[in-house]
Amino acid sequence: MPDTSIVFDGVEHSFGDRRVLSGISLELTQRRIGIVGANGSGKSTLARMINGLIIPDRGAVTVNGLDVRKNKRAVRRDVGFIFSDPDRQIIMPTVAEDIELSLSRTIKDKTERKTRALSVLSEFGLDGHADQPAHQLSGGQKQLLALASVMVLGPSILVADEPTTMLDLRNSLMLRETFAGLGEQLIVLSHDLDFLTDYDRVLVIDDGQVVADDEPGPALAFYRRAMA
Ligand SMILES: Nc1ncnc2c1ncn2[C@@H]1O[C@H](COP(=O)(O)OP(=O)(O)OP(=O)(O)O)[C@@H](O)[C@H]1O
C-alpha cells in the first residue's frame, strides 16, 4: 500500500443548479485505482477535486492529511495531474526544454538540468527526441512527454484523466506499461476498461454517485451490465 491517502468526506458539488456530485465519502489508499462512468457522470469533477482544481460546495477533500481547500499549493506539489489532451500541458518548443522547465525549480545549474532532462527522456522512452519540436511528436509520445514533465516534479500521487483517449493500441499498451512501472499512487479515469483490469480497485460513478466500489473484476462487470 502507498503511504499516501485521499479522503472524500461527504462531498457534494453543483454547477449552477445542476447537482454533479452527491454523497461522496471515500478513502482512497490503494496504489492503483480506476474510475469509470458514463459521459457526464462526474468523474472529472471528482478527479479535479484531488488537486484543488475544483473545490467542493460541501464536504471536504483531504490529501495526505491536508485539507485541499486550505492547502491548495502544498497539495498541488503532491498531486500530479495529466489531462487527456497533452497539448494542454506541453509548454516549451522542444521536448528537452519542456522537461527542463519542470526541473527549473529544483535544479538551478543549466548544464546539470540538461543532463537530467536527457536521462528523464530516456526513462520515458523518448530517447533521441530531445531537440525535436514537441508539436511534432506523435500523440502517444506527447502523452509520455506530458507524463514525464509531471513526474519530474516528484508528486506522490498521479491523477490521469482519460490518458489513452488519443492513443492507438500500441501507445496505449506503452502507457499502461509505463504506469505499471511507476511507484506513485495512481488514480486513472478511463473509458478503456481493459486499461484497468489489473488495478487494485475500481470505482463506478453514475449520476454523481459511487454505485460500485470493488476489485476490477466485479466492478467492471457491474459497469458493463449497467451500460448494456
Ligand atoms: N465548469 C463547468 N461548468 C458547468 N458544468 C460543468 C462544468 N464542468 C462539468 N460540468 C458538467 O458537470 C457534469 C459532469 O461533468 P464531468 O466532466 O465531471 O463528467 P465526466 O464523468 O468526467 O464525463 P466524460 O466521461 O464525458 O469526461 C456534466 O454534466 C458537465 O456538463
From TrEMBL:
Annotated keywords: ATP-binding, Nucleotide-binding, Transport
Q: Which GO terms describe its molecular function?
A: ATP binding
Q: Which InterPro entries match?
A: AAA+_ATPase, ABC_transporter-like_ATP-bd, ABC_transporter-like_CS, ABC_transpr_CbiO/EcfA_su, ECF_ABC_transporter_ATP-bd, P-loop_NTPase
Q: In what residue span(s) does the ABC transporter domain sit?
A: 6-228
Gene3D superfamilies named among the record's database cross-references: P-loop containing nucleotide triphosphate hydrolases
- Protein family (similarity comment): Belongs to the ABC transporter superfamily.
Query: Know the name of this protein?
Result: Energy-coupling factor ABC transporter ATP-binding protein
The lineage, from the top, is: Bacteria, Bacillati, Actinomycetota, Actinomycetes, Mycobacteriales
